[in-house]
Specification:
The protein is α/β, with parallel strands linked by helices. The protein contains 11 helices and 8 strands. It has an 8-stranded parallel beta barrel, surrounded by 7 helices. Strand 4, helix 6 and strand 5 form a beta-alpha-beta unit. The protein binds 3-methyl-2-oxobutanoic acid.
Length: about 270
């Protein structure tokens, strides 16, 4: 057992994340989608738990994040919020729940907060959603932004390759980051962009910047299934594997099946 023991044991807030940026303390963030996992990572010292719409892939088996619905996300988010003690919990607003109109976005953000008990919501986009972000923030709901490789736009991008390598897209991303800060976001995620561009945004913004595949930032986020090595076929360059749960689970289940077949389980001590 080697949990990280945070010096500050109080519930993490949006304000606290800003203080962490100011003092140079890095922010550790992971996704989670269920009660048990959220409880483990909360107790292990994680600062922020993201109920990502990556649940569409890792929990529901879809190819993209596009099909997951608001009702499905609220089931995962409620379970995570009930388990989290210290960590700030952020829920992704799924595709289609905030793009149609500002009013609908506000209504759906309120629904997520009321139904699940999470602390904040996350939206993908920049200047195009700034007014929507402002509307949600004005309701008292903290909003996290997300720029770079935004998976809800996969059909527009056509590829999961690194974004903003070209100067024009890089400049647009910097302008988007400023627009999100001005609209009231308490933090932004930058996904799969060149490390030099992340460094520039970190320097120019006063809100925390959380990287995933973007090099050093004010904090880092990974999808928990990736860092625990649950899927041996998915190993992008930016993922560091901290465990090989695929092997651990395969070995455990294999041993169990063998024991059942051989009547080695249950033993005399494991029965009433
Ligand atoms: O849905 C998700 O898991 C995310 C992270 C990759 C940042 O948005």
């Amino acid at each position: 057992m080697s949990a990280y023991i945070p010096e500050n044991k109080k519930k993490v807030t949006a304000l606290r994340l800003r203080e962490m940026k100011a003092t140079g303390e890095k922010i550790a963030m992971l996704t989670a989608y269920d009660y048990t996992t959220a409880g483990i990572i909360d107790a292990a010292g994680i600062d922020v738990i993201l109920v990502g719409d990556s649940a569409s892939n890792v929990m529901l088996g879809h190819q993209t994040t596009l099909p997951i619905t608001l009702d499905e996300m609220t089931v995962f988010a409620g379970a995570v919020a009930r388990a989290a003690g210290r960590a700030l919990v952020v829920c992704d607003m799924p595709f289609g729940t905030y793009q149609v109109s500002r009013e609908e976005a506000i209504r759906n953000a309120v629904k997520i907060i009321q139904k699940t008990g999470v602390d904040a919501v996350k939206l993908e986009g920049g200047q195009n959603i700034a007014e929507t972000v402002r509307g949600i923030v004005d309701c008292g709901i903290p909003v996290m932004g997300h720029l770079g490789l935004t998976p809800q736009s996969i059909n527009a991008f056509g590829t999961y390759a690194v974004r903003a390598r070209e100067q024009a897209e890089a400049e647009r991303l910097v302008a988007d980051a400023h627009a999100l800060e001005a609209a009231g976001c308490f933090a932004i995620v930058l996904e799969k962009i060149p490390a030099v561009l992340t460094a520039r945004v970190v320097k120019e913004l006063s809100i925390p910047v959380i990287g995933i595949g973007g090099g050093e930032a004010d904090g880092q986020v990974l999808v928990i299934d990736d860092m625990l090595g649950k899927n041996p076929d998915f190993k992008p360059k930016f993922v560091r594997r901290y465990a090989d749960l695929h092997s651990v689970m395969t070995d455990a289940v294999g041993a169990y099946v063998t024991d059942v077949k051989n009547t080695a389980f249950p033993s005399a001590d494991e029965r009433y």
